[in-house]
Amino acid sequence: MDDRIDDHDIEVEGGLHAYDRKISGLLDDGSVGFQQPLLARNRKNTTSQIAIVGANTCPIESLDYEIFENDLFKQDWRSRKKIEILQYTILKWALAFLIGLATGLVGFLNNLAVENIAGFKLLLTGNLMLKEKYFQAFFAFAGCNLILATVAASLCAFIAPAAAGSGIPEVKAYLNGIDAYSILAPSTLFVKIFGSIFGVAAGFVVGKEGPMVHTGACIANLLGQGGSRKYKLTWKWLRFFKNDRDRRDLITCGAAAGVAAAFRAPVGGVLFALEEAASWWRSALLWRTFFTTAVVAVVLRSLIELCRSGKCGLFGKGGLIMFDVNSGPVLYSTPDLLAVVFLGVVGGVLGSLYNYLVDIVLRTYALINERGPGFKVMLVMAVSILSSCCAFGLPWLSQCTPCPIGSEGKCPSVGHSGIYKSFQCPPNHYNDLSSLLLNTNDDAIRSLFTSRSENEFQISTLAMFFVFVFCLGIITYGIAIPSGLFIPVILAGASYGRLVGRLLGPVSQLDVGLFSLLGAASFLGGTMRMTVSLCVILLELTNNLLMLPLVMLVLLISKTVADCFNKGVYDQIVTMKGLPYMEDHAEPYMRNLVAKDVVAGPLLSFSRVEKVGVIWQALRMTAHNGFPVIDEPPFTEASELCGIALRSHLLVLLQGKRFSKQKTTFGSQILRSCKARDYAKAGLGKGLKIEDLVISDEEMEMYVDLHPITNTSPYTVLETLSLAKAAILFRQLGLRHLCVVPKTPGRPPIVGILTRHDFMPEHVLGLYPHIDPLK
């Protein structure tokens, strides 16, 4: 066995090769040297094992979605009784119910808190404006925003940096097989909930929908592993899913529940998980996610009914509303279809531009965020002051508009939350721009989608509001608070859609509210690049199936146009953060290479019966996660591949000290003295480490049989297999290790191991730059 490592072959803490850092060799203490992520240095990602999660740089590892079929696993399944299998099935559904219940409660309380905190702030500002105390009103408005923003930023910067941002890229990466301790930690859940409340209430151009997806995933992870030992939240009866495969299914349910709770769109939540979040899907998972989102819908409906009596303070319908769009018959002609096509093209262009600018801003903020928590908080405070100045200052540029006929008592809104803000206007007048800016984001969307009066908002107002939301949405996303992209994109799209509707009013039969909805759909399609799930979410939000053909058309056009320029916003963020995401297709240049071209040696392997000291030294000196196990004479006639042993299993085996002084097979003794649950994966990376083992010098000279913990049926491919086919196989099977075996006999039984890193474009093109299609 050779202890040398090659930088193309090393794996760190679980199977990801270095995806933003280079392996520089082994240090004296046995650790692996690496550089800081290049994202914050030269705006370019190369292959590394650290990535940006939220606003934090942390190590990442692969997940074991493959069923590890060793002797312990087979013995455990053979010994299971029918009642235990039934208990396992029932527990899956029970957990799906609990995930839906908890996510629904969190979604409702989130909206309740935001509406009351923001409502109090806006009422205070409005009352001071009525008394013509304009400076006091501004300082009260900006001061409340600054305090709320500072609290949200402090939570993110000092307690859980992984909670910053929407969390959807991180959840998407987890479901693709990438893990980091902080992605779904209980501290991340806590900060995600309260940071989102304070951040949205602070008047930032952000939404709580993206954070709700991350919140649902965190809740599912917490329940699926039986709670948190660190925070004394453990339930033994829930500690059943001690493998990544079952946890992946639960987190998919949690992500779907988050969308359902944010938009009150249960079907849209299922389709979002299918289209955007999950990398693997099957019919059984479809049933459970649908059941989970149905529970969310029932919980939200019940709680909203309780609030209709007025016991929830300023909470009206909040973000759980169904936006009202003109419910009359949707009639359209050829000019109207041309207008819809125009909206789709504009939405695609603006969406791709939005993604491009978001990418630039995120890379710029990385330079600030890497300086420490204090700089993160100061950046949030600066953006908060800018947002407050714009939201309070721009309405002074807008003219006062007479209240619509029939709106007596509602216009202007005095002493209560409403959509007609008087601001500095005389009685019976309202300031249309302040009605959008000095309001909650949900009320602003409701105002844009409705069509009480075609001239409710002036053209100049819609133009200014679009520029404000477009620019502030880009600037705000990336600061250290939980922030979603759905609401800023919907606001920007709705404003320019209504603007187009006003301009085309003389020649179009479509309502301006419908134009607003189609504008929102086009901008969503241009940024998110989703179609089916967005279409259903928008229809569930507006409760109007008559708009289905137009929404479908505008989504398809905007996505097609935007795809000509760049990738979707979440795909861009995943790449920029350094998360080694496996796409569902292979790159064309991979067809010019074969599997052996990207693996490197010499390979570190063990014999079936290996000396304890050799294993301990290998675990101490490397960070490999999987080790090939070779059957050698005298146990076999010739060397042959026995399988793969995981690092975590080797550590448990060494801790149990089941050794022998003789180099002989004794796997049956280990099977009788061990149980499969002893080798189950610990939650949140709390497994054994090599530093936890205490092995004497005498034990170092003893032997251990690795066969009971070896996966004797690993996936293998010939060394001459196309790298493109290997990538598709790796992705579709959800593998962590793919063994490459020789084509001709008489050679060592294994050539190398393909891991996620070996398929990354940065790694492949780094080895073979001449096949780069851009050169």
UniProtKB/TrEMBL annotation:
UniProt cross-references to CDD domains, sorted A to Z: CBS_pair_voltage-gated_CLC_euk_bac, ClC_6_like
Signal peptide annotation: none
Bilayer topology: Multi-pass membrane protein
Gene3D superfamilies assigned: CBS-domain, Clc chloride channel
Transmembrane segments annotated in the record for this chain: 90-114, 134-160, 181-206, 250-274, 280-300, 337-357, 377-397, 462-491, 503-524, 530-557
Gene Ontology molecular function: voltage-gated chloride channel activity
Domain CBS: 709-773
Locations listed in the record: Membrane
Pfam family membership, one: Voltage_CLC
Coiled-coil annotated residue ranges, if any: none
Keywords: CBS domain, Chloride, Chloride channel, Ion channel, Ion transport, Membrane, Repeat, Transmembrane, Transmembrane helix, Transport, Voltage-gated channel
Gene Ontology cellular component list: chloride channel complex; plant-type vacuole membrane
Highest taxon in the source lineage: Eukaryota
SUPFAM superfamilies assigned to the protein according to its UniProt record, in alphabetical order: CBS-domain pair, Clc chloride channel
InterPro entries: CBS_dom (IPR000644), CBS_dom_sf (IPR046342), Cl-channel/antiporter (IPR051280), Cl-channel_core (IPR014743), Cl_channel_pln (IPR002251), ClC (IPR001807)
Family listed: Belongs to the chloride channel (TC 2.A.49) family.
Name of the molecule in the record: Chloride channel protein
Source organism of this protein record: Raphanus sativus (Radish)
Phylogenetic classification of the source organism: Eukaryota, Viridiplantae, Streptophyta, Embryophyta, Tracheophyta
